[in-house]
Design goal:
185 residues; two-stranded antiparallel ribbon
């Protein structure tokens, strides 16, 4: 484990949120409140109340801001983007042990709006990545027809594809077939 459990969880949330966007998947994965509620339940957001159309709009806007961090050309740009994200939140760090998880830190106020919850925890997770000198672990899938993002948490930094079963397998099969064609010549 490179980062703490809650940081890795927040990074997974960032990746999944970005990958709900049309730029990554070709369709809008957060079409309305029901899709956002499903996303929140799947990623075990605590303290979720009613989900509104405004929440959906705010999550989509935040999704674009997180994507910009992944697309940042250098560390100073990523730092500026992350500081803007976390700088807009009422940070209220506190320890909690909810939902069967051991003690971990939440950075949002307990009654904060959903988008502040997202921006605080996920923004801080991205800040930890940059502070650890690991910005290069935030990547876009290397498959030529894919623009999904990933966080490479492998020990040797070798993860290249968003999903080894789809993009990874497809690229490995294509490379194998190209080698076979070349060998046959």
């Amino acid at each position: 484990m490179i980062f703490t459990h809650d940081t890795e969880h927040a990074l997974a949330v960032v990746v999944e949120l970005i990958n709900t966007g049309p730029a990554a998947s070709g369709t809008e994965g957060l079409a309305g409140p029901e899709e956002l509620r499903s996303f929140l339940e799947e990623h075990r957001f605590s303290g979720v109340r009613a989900v509104t159309a405004r929440d959906v709009e705010e999550f989509r806007a935040q999704r674009d801001r997180f994507r910009a961090v992944f697309d940042a050309p250098d560390v100073p740009t990523a730092v500026r983007l992350i500081n803007e994200i976390v700088g807009e939140v009422r940070a209220t760090p506190h320890l909690t042990d909810h939902d069967g998880y051991d003690w971990h830190v939440h950075f949002f106020a307990p009654e904060a709006p959903l988008v502040e919850h997202l921006a605080a925890d996920c923004g801080m997770a991205l800040a930890y990545v940059v502070a650890a000198g690991e910005l290069d672990r935030l990547r876009t899938c290397e498959a030529p027809d894919c623009s999904r993002v990933l966080v490479d948490l492998s020990r040797n930094r070798c993860r290249r594809y968003c999903d080894s079963r789809t993009c990874g397998n497809r690229m490995h099969v294509a490379a194998y077939r190209a080698r076979q064609r070349e060998a046959a010549l």
